[in-house]
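User: Okay, second chain of the day. Same drill as before: sequence in, structure tokens out.
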Amino acid sequence: ELDPLSNIINTWVGSRYFFARQYDRAIEQYRHAVEMDPGFVPVHLVLGHALEQKHMYQEAILELEKAVSLSGGSPVYLASLAHAYGAAARRSEARKTLDELINLSRKRYVSSYDLALAWLGAGDTDQAMALLTQAVDERCPRATFLRVDPRFDGLRSDTRFKTLAVRVAPPS
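Assistant: Same drill. Structure tokens below.
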């Protein structure tokens, strides 16, 4: 209410809907943010996440490809794109994007969290879990989202994931 034209605030409002699994409301909020500034990279990322959860894979991938392009190939955006390719059953593209991320990690820092997300998209749960454990050990800030990020819903029944989730945010 105090700053209705702030794109980052509008994007974070949408993220609250996303984490609450209110994808339609999240998409609406994100699209409003895109209208305000089509070049605001983070909103394309999270819009892609919400579209992916709605199984709107073609639109999700388009948003994530735009985010990768606008970001200059940021590892955060590449990892999300690899995950979306996997969710869309486009495994070869997921693997190609993962390989790009691995090659990038030889030149610059790539978070274990991002690598885990990409491996999950490529279909390797064990490698994803090993990297998520590493991300938690490294105190990666985004690991705090493990308990709420729907992209990890497929891992929630895995005892290794349950252990990590407690390590990140112990039950009260």
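Residues 16 and 37 are 20 Å apart (CA to CA).

User: Thanks, on to the next one.
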